[in-house]
TrEMBL record:
It comes from the Bacteria. PROSITE patterns: D_2_HYDROXYACID_DH_2 (PS00670), D_2_HYDROXYACID_DH_3 (PS00671). It is an enzyme of class 1 (oxidoreductase). This is D-3-phosphoglycerate dehydrogenase. SUPFAM superfamilies: ACT-like (SSF55021), Formate/glycerate dehydrogenase catalytic domain-like (SSF52283), NAD(P)-binding Rossmann-fold domains (SSF51735), Serine metabolism enzymes domain (SSF143548). Catalyzes the reversible oxidation of 3-phospho-D-glycerate to 3-phosphonooxypyruvate, the first step of the phosphorylated L-serine biosynthesis pathway. Also catalyzes the reversible oxidation of 2-hydroxyglutarate to 2-oxoglutarate. It comes from Sandaracinobacteroides saxicola. Its EC number is 1.1.1.95. Residues 106-280 form the D-isomer specific 2-hydroxyacid dehydrogenase NAD-binding domain. GO terms for biological process: L-serine biosynthetic process.
């Protein structure tokens, strides 16, 4: 039974779902990084929000971990490259808290426009300062969106309902999408010059870090009000403080900070400054949504292999996963065979599918091939980290889907390219389930796969099979199945044997010395 650890506060829906699906779940929140590292090795899944930091060190300690599920959008608290390298799938829930976060941005915009927190504090202090708090209307004001994805587009929709004019800076926003959203696509400089309110909705990346730098803030309209419900680090906090102090910036509301938890900040106490403690996603509705989604996604992955919303693996629905499983098993075996037989440096791997396999999602098939190919140089390779390992080793990967008639109900062909040339193996599924090898290095065979196999290339000469049988028999190795293929009578022949016992090194030498033998290799599948 897989085991999942929930290490951040999450709706009770998440543990309920894990238990209902037969997964053992433990909720342990507020652990120090050492406490977490000490227990993480017991778990197959880790479900988190934003407090847990899934660092490279934690991932290295997580020997059984298969999946990290982020109940939320941003995965900046997860070292995704380290997870990928370790073969751990990282999933998020990209839509569950978008409305809630957009509403928080709108709430902060209203709070800034009418100085609600200061007015509330003053009134509750018994001051009744009616003349101190003069606000501004939102109607007809220009809202500048930086980032017009899920959350930005919901903010735009709500702002248009408030009769604001919405302009957006997002290099990935197409003119058609901008038109559909009812917003004007502008450059960043345009936005800075025109917006009365600016709201940020981008991830924190190299291109967005300090997007509101001192220089950018200096280009804003006097009195601009700024809202950040996306990520700390998008605004230069010192420059923001200076802008508020000088009166150039009319107000700023931050839900997110460079350092979190933000228990001290030079911004605290600055007139016109409002803050919330990363509450963007904190509504009952959003937390139930993300908890349900993360638990369902992680359970699907751990129980069926289905992949949804993964950042480091192609999607695979829970319905498609069982259909693809026999193809992936075949693909991995073909990869294992070429990976073990190829001694030269692999520069490229081509995966071709035809027949029934061509109707399926090819990505998981390719992932399985790569995992098989690279198993010969990494024990920890799996479908998640195989594409990353391939990239690291400059192995070019190609996928080809053939829509042609085939002699087989389905065919998967794997070709590896080395400085010495190309070699390929191909396989099919018998009865849509049982993998069979049908071609190896251009020679037709008809072989099933087994855990231990002996591969031999020899000259097709009379008497060889008898001598081989005797050699194996003398070493106490029993032959399970025996498959033969050859280029032609008397030409190069291939033998694939499944054997019941491990093949000792000495036996390989003895076979190698038999007359006519060109290559001998023990294969582990
Ligand atoms: N405060 C919270 O609690 C909270 C809750 C949910 C999400 N978030 C954060 O909100 C942010 C936005 O989430 P989303 O779901 O809308 O993401 P999204 O991926 O749907 O949208 C992000 C948008 O930013 C745009 N973008 C990327 N680089 C840009 C750049 N250099 N300049 C301008 N635009 C750029 C993208 O094209 C995309 O349209 C994320 O950082 C997420 O982590 C915060
Ligand atoms: O979990 C939270 O409270 C914050 C979530 C938010 O930052 C996100 O990126 O989804």
């Amino acid at each position: 039974m897989p085991k999942v650890l929930i290490s951040d506060k999450m709706s009770p829906k998440a543990p309920e779902i894990f238990r209902a699906r037969g997964i053992e779940v433990h909720e342990k929140t507020g652990l120090s990084k050492d406490e977490l590292a000490a227990i993480i090795g017991d778990y197959d899944g880790l479900a988190i929000r934003s407090s847990t930091k899934a660092t490279a060190a934690l991932i290295a300690a997580a020997k059984n971990l298969k999946v990290i599920g982020r109940a939320g959008i941003g995965v900046d608290n997860v070292d995704v490259p380290a997870a990928s390298a370790a073969g751990v799938v990282v999933m998020n829930t990209p839509f569950g808290n978008s409305i809630t976060t957009a509403e928080h941005a709108i709430a902060l915009m209203f709070a800034l426009a009418r100085q609600l927190p200061e007015a509330d504090a003053s009134t509750q202090a018994g001051k009744w300062e009616k003349n101190r708090f003069m606000g501004v209307e939102l109607t007809a004001k220009t809202l500048g969106l930086i980032g017009a994805g899920n959350i930005g587009s919901i903010v735009a929709d709500r702002a248009l309902g408030l009769k604001m004019k919405v302009i957006a800076y997002d290099p990935f926003l197409t003119p058609e999408r901008a038109k559909d959203m009812g917003v004007e696509k502008v450059t960043l400089d345009d936005l800075l010059a025109k917006a009365d309110f600016i709201t940020l909705h981008t991830p924190l990346t190299d291109s967005t870090r300090n997007i509101l730098s001192a220089e950018a803030l200096a280009k804003t309209k006097k009195g601009v009000r700024i809202i950040n419900c996306a990520r700390g680090g998008l605004i230069d906090e010192a420059a923001l403080k200076a802008g508020l102090d000088s009166g150039h910036i009319g107000g700023a509301a931050l839900d997110v900070f460079v350092e979190e938890p933000a228990t001290a900040s030079p911004l605290f106490g600055t007139p016109g400054f409002i803050s919330t403690p990363h509450l963007g996603a904190s509504t009952d509705e959003a937390q139930v949504n993300v908890a349900i989604q993360v638990a369902e996604q992680m359970a699907d992955f751990l129980l069926t292999g289905g992949v949804t919303n993964a950042l480091n693996m192609p999607s695979l629905s829970a319905e498609d996963a069982p259909k693809l499983r026999p193809y992936m098993a075949l693909a991995e075996k073909l990869g294992l065979i070429v990976g073990q037989l190829e001694t030269a440096e692999i520069r490229g791997v081509k995966v071709e599918v035809e027949g029934a396999a061509a109707q399926l999602n090819i990505k998981p098939i390719t992932g399985a091939v790569l995992a098989g190919v690279m198993r010969s140089f990494s024990d920890t390779v799996n479908m998640v980290n195989a594409p990353f390992l391939a990239r690291e080793r400059n192995i070019e990967v190609a996928e080809v889907r053939h829509e042609r008639d085939t002699d087989y109900q389905t065919l998967v062909r794997v070709t590896v390219r080395t400085p010495e040339g190309e070699r390929s193996v191909a396989g099919t599924l018998l009865g849509s389930q049982f993998p069979r090898l049908v071609e190896i290095f251009g020679i037709k065979v008809e072989a099933d796969f087994s855990e231990r196999m002996l591969f031999i290339i020899n000259e097709d000469k009379p008497g060889f099979i008898g001598r081989l049988g005797t050699t194996l028999g003398e070493a106490g190795v029993n032959i399970g199945t025996f498959h033969l293929g050859r280029r032609g009578a008397g030409a190069e022949a291939i033998l694939l044997l499944s054997v019941d016992q491990p093949i000792p090194e000495q036996l390989l030498w003895n076979v190698c010395r038999l007359p006519g033998v060109k290559t001998v290799k023990a294969l582990k599948l």
